[in-house]
Amino acid sequence: MIVALAGGVGGARLAAGLAAALPARELTVVVNTGDDFEHLGLTICPDLDTVMYTLAGINNAIAGWGRADESWNFMDTLGKLGGETWFRLGDRDLAVHVIRSLAAHGGMPLSEVTRKLASRFGIRHAILPMSETPVRTRVRTGHGELSFQDYFVRLRCRPRVRGFRFAHRRQAAPPAPLRKLFRAGAVTAVVLCPSNPYVSIAPILAVPEIGAWIRRRDFPVVAISPIIGRAAVKGPAAKMMRELGQEPSALGVVRHYGRLVDGWVIDNRDSKLGAAIAREGKRVLATNTLMTDRGKSLRLAAATLAFARTFATARG
Amino acid sequence: MIVALAGGVGGARLAAGLAAALPARELTVVVNTGDDFEHLGLTICPDLDTVMYTLAGINNAIAGWGRADESWNFMDTLGKLGGETWFRLGDRDLAVHVIRSLAAHGGMPLSEVTRKLASRFGIRHAILPMSETPVRTRVRTGHGELSFQDYFVRLRCRPRVRGFRFAHRRQAAPPAPLRKLFRAGAVTAVVLCPSNPYVSIAPILAVPEIGAWIRRRDFPVVAISPIIGRAAVKGPAAKMMRELGQEPSALGVVRHYGRLVDGWVIDNRDSKLGAAIAREGKRVLATNTLMTDRGKSLRLAAATLAFARTFATARG
What we know:
Distance between the termini of chain A: 16 Å
Helix content of chain A: 40-55%
Largest sheet of chain A: 7 strands, parallel
Number of helices of chain A: 13
Radius of gyration of chain A: 19 Å
CATH class of chain A: Alpha Beta
Number of domains of chain A: 1
Oligomer: homodimer
Number of strands of chain A: 14
CATH topology of chain A: Rossmann fold
Largest interface: A-B, 29 and 29 residues
CATH architecture of chain A: 3-Layer(aba) Sandwich
Structural class of chain A: alpha/beta
Strand content of chain A: 15-25%
Order of helices and strands of chain A: EHEEEHHHHEEEHEHEHHEEEHHEHEH
Strand order of the largest sheet of chain A: 5-2-1-9-10-13-14
């Protein structure tokens, strides 16, 4: 069993590649829910939706969120009636939020409604929220602490970040199927998808049971750098690294994770960093990490899995 | 000031005619909220919406509910995901329900969010819910008591009715602007629109303060029969009358209301009933009551207003 930790577009794309490379019983995608928020009376889980839509092949690859085939009549009307439109919700997308919110209101665990929705979208691989209970990423900035979506969508990542906090993380409850994996010893590798280290992967690791399980591991942790050259493929990762005094490069990401990651997958364009990463005590695989289509996602996933297997062999 | 009591399609069409005939300061439309219900986590007020959309000229005249220019991508997706689709909500329509539900959740009175929505739709005349607090029409049938929308939409009015109950009517709180009219003595006539007597007008009259105000009136009450010949223009009114042992005719409607109504507007096709209605002690106006376009709504409204003025003159 491979467990992938994912959030955002890069995470969703690698998860889709892993799902194409592995049978359903051999992959569990654990998704960041720190971005979740309550909006317009609905519970919205942006990363779960991005992973679900991407695995179902109905994601909007250009926008990086929402569905490809979408209409905006709800949002347009909401705007005309004076409602809030800074967070865009498409007409079809809205059905997911309504079903999830109703389920939550009725006491259904988030993992269960996620499973039902994913099944309706024809997804056979397990997608699990990192927690059944709400964990909320808070962004510390020069203008005070912001909720994640305020920072990310409404303020378009403009405020300079000083740090992050994952509210209610101590009460976080990983779903039962994930807890089962903690005990079973059946996990052969954990893959950190090329997601933002601070706001996609860190919230998952901040769930105490998940963090403890990975730290005491008997399996390798391999990660794909979300930074190529000096830039994030998508999103504010490089900007955040600069603002936090870290070097915005694959090497900076390697140093950020430290002992948590055993092997690194970096882009061919960064192969000159290979020696420096090796000096950090890590094994390195350089390949094409830019997932501009589903074929490239599958090839990166397959290369990452093969890389992970070399650790198992080394240990075995 | 003319106060019109309205619910359903006939009520909305006469309300639009009255709004075309009267300046904004001379008309208040009081709308049935007994049909309101909670669905998909939203507070839905079908009669308020029908009146609002009809006054705004954006109603779907063929369906008799919803908006003319509408899309169904939310509902179609909801169905594919296993959600409930028996109550159809269009993508544009949904914006109204979301705004109203958010307002209710935030403690805003229903009359206030209705005023704001109507204003955004360009409506200048006052549309008021009969109560700020929920009143719920319950339908007694051979198969037990049903919620109104269960009976009306889900079961398509098939169950035989035995009676009605307006849950929470004793706690009903008419909006402040309506209470002001109770005291002011400025009302020159109340018009009962050609709405279903049992499930559109009766819930309004069942609000204790509204019923008491109309019974102790110093103004005439005129009504338009929702029955032409032996049939309701739209909806289950004639079926309900038969099931309750009342004659499904304009005369049956007259007898149903008894002393509450002073003058009746009936269709030309029922002019032969004029003498029988006169024997009930009522004045009668026969005219064309079928509002198949906005011009006909305006002409019926103007004729009804002229008819109401003859009572004022008689009393004066």
